[in-house]
Amino acid sequence: MAHHVNKINNLKKLIYSVNEMFYTINRFQHSQYNKQNLKSTPFILNEYYKNNSEDWKQYINTIDVNKYGYHKYNIFDDHSKFNNSNYFKNNLKFSIVTWLPDAKTDFHLHLNDGCIMMPLKGYLTQNIIKSKNNILHPNDKDKDKDNYNQNTLFSGEYSYIDDEIGMHRILNTSNNIAVSINIYQENNVKEDEIPINV
Fold this sequence. Notes:
Elements: H1 11-29, H2 35-39, H3 41-47, H4 53-56, E1 70-76, E2 92-99, E3 107-109, E4 114-121, E5 123-132, E6 135-136, H5 140-143, E7 148-154, E8 159-162, E9 166-171, E10 178-185, E11 194-196
Antiparallel strand pairs: 1-2, 2-10, 3-11, 4-8, 4-10, 5-6, 5-7, 5-9
């Protein structure tokens, strides 16, 4: 008999499911922060989330973009209106990011935390400079190709990065608007993106 899975088709249920997973893991680990917890989130994105543009299109913003050509709308954190449960204190933040054509971030770290990014519309290019023994070398892309790579993420695909992996830069190289959902675990760090001049 085939196993039928009811897909999560709205952001509120997705946010609740991820937080519930974190809460359950933290109860057994007695740890408020663990990068492995965040790395488990793609399981829910892959197996249970059904992309529904009617649910997130209200967060698209092509007017109030920053100097890099993107706009980040935070839809959930520990103080969000979605967070009506006292036990959802996982230091998680969910954002919907609108990327204009040619949008490009600086290379940046996610200091002491992690980030999952999944395009919901369009595709995004990611450049990664890997760390060597936890020391970052911004010029490695010119000196050592083994420590620099590039990948393209299409709708429904995801990437995970933290400061132990290295730093990255996100680009929208298409002529169309792209939209992504970004999930962070902040670990009490105020700045989730620490820019590096490269």
